[in-house]
Amino acid sequence: MRIETFEEKATFLAGAVAAWTVFFLFVNYNLELPSKLGKRKIDDLKNRVVSIVHGLFALVVSGYHIYRDNPQYEESATKIQHIILLTSSAYFIYDFVACAIYGLADMGLVLHHTLCLLGIGACELSNNATTALLGLFLAEVSNFPMHFRVVLRTLKMRYTKLYELAECAYIVLYIIARGIFITLLVLTATPVSSTPILIRFTCVGLWVQSLYFIYEMSGILKRKIKHYKERSQKGISLNWFDDNAKLVELSYYKTEGKDKIF
């Protein structure tokens, strides 16, 4: 299978969009969830299954490629890089459409997916894929705990140790991967003369969005410390899988809204 010309890339992309769509339809018709959750939450959970699969695919395959081949910014894109980036582009197209249809899209998602598609598109048109590949790998490091914590929250497990572990893992991995390593990526990739202007723009744009989310996360961490102190003072601990009956004594129990960090 050749993936070199524009026509070949467009054909692969269309096929990958169809594959993600078929996979979602399979999940949609075979994954049974309690109807009491409501249609919106059920649609969201089913779509997140697809997102988790994409995240694991991108993390494992790009990570293995980076470890094995050590790609450099100036190198031309290889076949495996085309496969990874076009498959991820197809996922972003699928997810954008699915979220729009099911009313799950917000401005953060629209901005994120648009920048991702612009960046990957620029990489494919310029045949320079390393920057996007490294960015994709680092972005997906925190993907699984991000979605897993939402799944737990939807299943009424927000006030459990498992949820706390998932959210803390998400925040810590996000800050390390995007706050530190993607900052280094931006500082090293954008000055390279062979890096196309559009790739530099989207790289900086996604980095700025990540910094905004890290700022939001700092507030969440402060709130978690405050909650931990309150639980300690009242001698109340969290259970792993269900709510401790004593949680009703806490001032924040079932009063928290949705955090805007995906």
Question: Can you lay out the helices and strands and say which pair or pack?
Answer:
Layout: H1 6-30, H2 39-69, H3 79-101, H4 107-126, H5 130-140, H6 143-154, H7 161-189, H8 197-234
Helix pairs in contact: 1-2, 1-3, 2-3, 2-5, 2-6, 3-4, 4-8, 5-7, 6-7, 7-8
Total helical elements:
8
Helix content: over 70%
Query: How many strand elements?
Result: 0
Assign an overall shape.
globular
Uncertain residue ranges:
none
Domains (count): 1
> How would you name the oligomeric state of the polypeptide chains in this document?
single chain
Which sequence of SSEs, written as H and E, runs from N to C? HHHHHHHH
Write down the overall mean pLDDT.
91
The largest β sheet comes out as: none
Question: How far do the termini sit from each other?
Answer: 36 Å
Q: Structural class, from secondary structure content?
A: mainly alpha
Tell me the β content. Answer: under 5%
Rounded to the nearest angstrom, the radius of gyration is 20 Å
Characterization of this structure:
The protein is mainly α and 262 residues long. The protein has one domain (6-249). 72% of the residues lie in helices and 0% in strands. It has helices at 6-30, 39-69, 79-101, 107-126, 130-140, 143-154, 161-189, 197-234. The longest helix is centred in the last third of the chain and has 38 residues, at 197-234. It is globular, with a radius of gyration of 20 Å. The mean pLDDT is 91.
